[in-house]
Amino acid sequence: MAGPSETEKIRPVAIETEMRRSYIKYAMSVIVGRALPDIRDGLKPVQRRILYAMQGLGLSSKNQHKKSARVVGETLGKYHPHGDMAVYDALVRMAQDFSMRYRLVDGQGNFGSLDGDEPAAMRYTEVRLARLSEEMLSELELDTVDWMQNFDDSLKEPIVLPARFPNLLVNGASGIAVGMSCNIPPHNMCEIVDALVFLVDHPNAHLEDLIDFIKGPDFPTGGIVYDATSLLQAYKQGRGLIRILARINRENLKGDRKRLVITEIPFQVNKSRIVEEIANLVKEGELEGIANIRDESSREGIRVTVDLKAGAQPEVVESQLYKLTQLHSSFSFINLVLLDGRPQILDLKETLTAFIDFRTWVIERRSKFELQRSQERLNILEGFTTAIRNLDTIIATIRNAEEPHEAASKLRDLNLNDKQIEAILQMRLQQLTRLEVHEVENEVNEKREEILKLEKILEDRTQLLAVLKSELMQVKETYGDKRKTEIRPENVNLDVKQEIRDEQVLVFLSIDGYVKRVNLRPFTIAKRGSEGVPSIDLKEQDKVRKVLTCRTNETVMLLTNLGKAYLMNAHEIPEGTRSARGTPLINLLQFSERERAVNAVVVESLSPDKFLTTITKRGSVKRTPLDAFANVRANGIIALQFDEDDNLADAYITNGNGQILIATKEGVTIRFNESEIPVLSRNAKGVVGIKTHVTSQVTGSCYIPPKQKDPAILIVTRNGYGKRTMIEHIRLQKRGGSGVTAMKASSKAGQLATLACVPKEDHVLVVSEGGEAIRLSAVSIPAQGRTSSGVRIARLKEHDGIASVTTIPVEQQLKPS
User: Fold this and answer.
1) Is residue 350 part of a domain?
2) Full 3-state SS string of 488-534
3) Which of 23, 102, 124, 514 is catalytic?
4) Low-confidence winner among 202-211, 260-269, 281-290, 622-631 (lowest mean pLDDT)
5) Distance CA 304, CA 561 (A)
6) Annotation says 79 is catalytic
7) SS3 content of the chain, % helix, strand, coil (to 5)
8) Cα–Cα distance between 565 and 551 in angstroms, integer?
9) Which of 167, 189, 211 is the last residue of a domain?
């Protein structure tokens, strides 16, 4: 009968059906055969085959290393018909102490580094099994696992290794399959074993009970894992985000300078990229307070030093490093594994339970194998015992037999079975000595005890679990070590502002553009009329321009001679001692050529309900809403416009309901309501605030907040004289007037230098152009009328003059020392 024709062999199939079937087949092949680890031994196929091939080559931990190329060739040729680099990459990873928490391969040569350096070629590196790997392979010959044919059916390979420890959790795993991936962090051997032993004794334990033993991941590169709530959630759901911080220590250098030292980094983060990242951020001005960075790492460990600038707060720089670089990283935990040949996401308890079930199965199979082997050996030994007791009869029977078959047939009369008879016929004469006979008797007793023990293990699950626990504790004692990764239960706030010490400070600004932040403590209260103390080390010809009081968590707005505004966080202004010069602003801000800071104000928030109020030297005023400065660029933003012969005299933050005082160098002062000043855009010029003569100019002004308690105006002259004048002595006028005399200028007192609104409870810091500073209580300065010249409040050096006055609010004052 003729067979089917070629046409009849063709079967029509929808292309989408064939594509779906083929794709699913391919996907499962990748998932099961390449990408995902088996929950039992925690290995992917390529890793398992490498370890088995190394055992076949005799590369135990006690033997010499052999070339990696030989291991790769053995694995490719016998078990894993894929690319050689795929096999070598897997081999390298198992030999890297920064990738594996407990290495499975002992490597010799260059296997890469934390800096991302590539390992040497396989012809240069050498490997052998790590001692721990032998705990995974040692029971293969005891019928503990099933076997399968290799790719060409020429050899057999184990489906899984009889691992004596939970390698999946201890070393972690990662792999990308088709449409799914796994990413399991490593853990500490001691903690995992303790949790397993507890779970064996308490199979109904809750996951929260296991967390008491397993604190969290234990990465080979150390670091700090924080947020216990997220950890618990990840272990409950089998997936989640684990947050890791680098470990940063602090060191003190000479001259009150600080250093940050990075000694541990997050897992799987490239160290050299971190160093490069920090350097680039410093160069771009996004990281403040760093003077130098060096990588001093060696074989002893990681050491990256970050030297801080003088006055920089270590905790602030540390928070910036965590926030802006990979020193704060996250590990995406996905506990996707192969269980019963199927990919499943398991929680922590399910993962531990699956390993307990696997080891129970392995111990049971091993016990059955050993029981059978012991029974077979005991059978032979009992045959030897019978032969020894009937030695003469056996010798005569064997001697008189024509052939072995006849001898065997006659020996059955002694109730010997075929195995015993075969062993007796092959027995050597030396085994008939007294010593050998005694050893046979001892071995018989040992085998009987061993059989009894194995039968108990197989009959009583309690005995079997006791063996499991005992073997786990042996692994713990041999390979367990201290935790490398610290676990911090609490959450970590990386908000830089939370790390700033909230304290009252002084900000000094010089004409040549030097700026510094100084603590208030060195400036103690002095007697009125005494000499001040040095507050800044000025260069020759440089002078103090402005001093203001602020808190470290506030913002300072700097205004320049070009009418531009720049914003700086107060804590970013380098801190200095009382005798320090400070830091050039040009190193901190992107000033243009010939641009200089001429004033500064403290900004709490850029609220549209508050205003930047500015006064020029020619008496022009204007208000601009603060929200207009919400997007200040690195190179500043226009804040005001003025004529060529004019410049900024003063500025402050107002709320729309206060009063403004403006004074000229001759002592003429005008007071008017802030509401009379129009609200204008940043680019607009102001309106007349006070009429000035051609030779006159504004030298001082102040803002009186609404509902100010007992407001008084402190008026200070250039030669160090001053007085307090009650606000009602300066009558309220309309904006644009000529004002009234508030202080009588004289050759002795000098011209008016500056004004300040000072409640009597507050202190003031009066600073001269030469940097001499004196701190006074406001009440120590007498209240006088408009026509007086005041009293001496500061004794100045020759050719020096008062530059600035700042108020120290009563709630921030420190007790005099």
Assistant:
1) no
2) ECCCCCCCHHHHCCCCEEEEEEECCCEEEEEECCCCCECCCCCECEE
3) 124
4) 281-290
5) 42
6) no
7) 35, 25, 40
8) 20
9) 189
**Do 100 and 22 share a structural domain?**
yes
Residues 588 and 722 reside in one and the same domain = yes
Same domain flag for 693 and 570: yes
pLDDT digits (tens, 9 = 90+) for 443-492: 889 999 999 999 999 999 999 999 999 999 999 999 999 999 999 887 76
Q: Give strand pairing partners of 547.
A: 508
pLDDT in tens, 381-439: 888 888 777 877 877 877 777 787 877 787 777 778 888 888 878 877 666 665 577 88
Q: Are residues 565 and 448 in the same domain?
A: no
Number of domains in the chain: 4
Domain containing residue 619? 500-809
User: How far is residue 626's CA from residue 608's CA, in Å, rounded to a whole number?
Assistant: 6
d(CA 403, CA 413) in angstroms, rounded, equals 17
CATH of the domain at 394: 1.10.268.10
93: in domain: yes
Amino acid identity for residue 126 in this structure: E
Cα separations (Å) of 443 from 142, 378, 435?
21, 8, 12
702, 661 contact by CB (below 8 A): yes
- CATH number of the domain that residue 101 is part of: 3.90.199.10
**Residue 78 in tokens:** 């016998």
Q: Are residues 473 and 506 in the same domain?
A: no
H helices of 327-459, where? 348-389, 391-400, 404-411, 418-425, 434-459
579, 535, 652: which is closest to 255 by C-alpha?
Answer: 579
CB 575 within 8 A of CB 618: no
Say which CATH number the domain at 550 has: 2.120.10.90
The verdict on 618 and 746 lying in the same domain is: yes
Q: Which of 146, 167, 189 is the last residue of a domain?
A: 189
CA atoms within 13 A on the CB side of 483: 16
**CA 363 to CA 468: how far, in whole Å?**
8
Handedness of CA 421, 423, 428, 433 (dihedral sign): negative
Q: Residue 430: inside a domain, yes or no? A: yes
- Strand order across the 555-560 sheet: 597-603, 555-560, 564-569, 637-638
Q: At what angle do helices 434-459 and 348-389 cross, to 10 degrees?
A: 150
Residue at token pair 């590369």: 59
Closest CA to 188 of 177, 196, 180, 179: 196
Alpha-carbon distance of 758 to 702, in angstroms, equals: 10
Phi, psi dihedral angles at 405 (to 5 degrees):
-65, -40
403 and 299 in a common domain: no
**Is there a single domain that holds both residue 469 and residue 526?**
no
CA dihedral (420, 424, 426, 432) positive or negative: positive
CA distance 272 to 117: 10
Band of residue 770 on the pLDDT scale cut at 50, 70, 90 = very high
Closest CA to 229 of 493, 490, 494: 490
DSSP string, 433-461: SHHHHHHHHHHHHHHHHHHHHHHHHHH-H
| 340 in any annotated domain | no
Give the 3-state secondary structure of residue 554: coil
Q: Is 139 left (phi over 0), alpha (psi -120 to 50) or beta?
A: alpha
Q: Which two tokens stand for residue 96?
A: 């890297």
In contact, 550 and 601? CB cutoff 8 Å = no
Which residue stretches of 202-249 are H helix?
207-211, 228-237
Contacts of 232 (CB under 8 A, 6+ apart): 207, 208, 211
Tokens representing 160 are 């899984």
Lookup: tokens for 648: 């900024």
Please answer whether residues 207 and 296 qualify as being in contact, where contact means their C-beta atoms are separated by less than 8 angstroms: no
Give the whole-angstrom CA distance, residue 677 versus residue 612. 11
CA pair distance 33, 234, nearest whole angstrom: 27
Give this prediction's pTM: 0.71
Whether residue 402 contacts residue 409, with contact meaning beta carbons closer than 8 Å, is answered with no
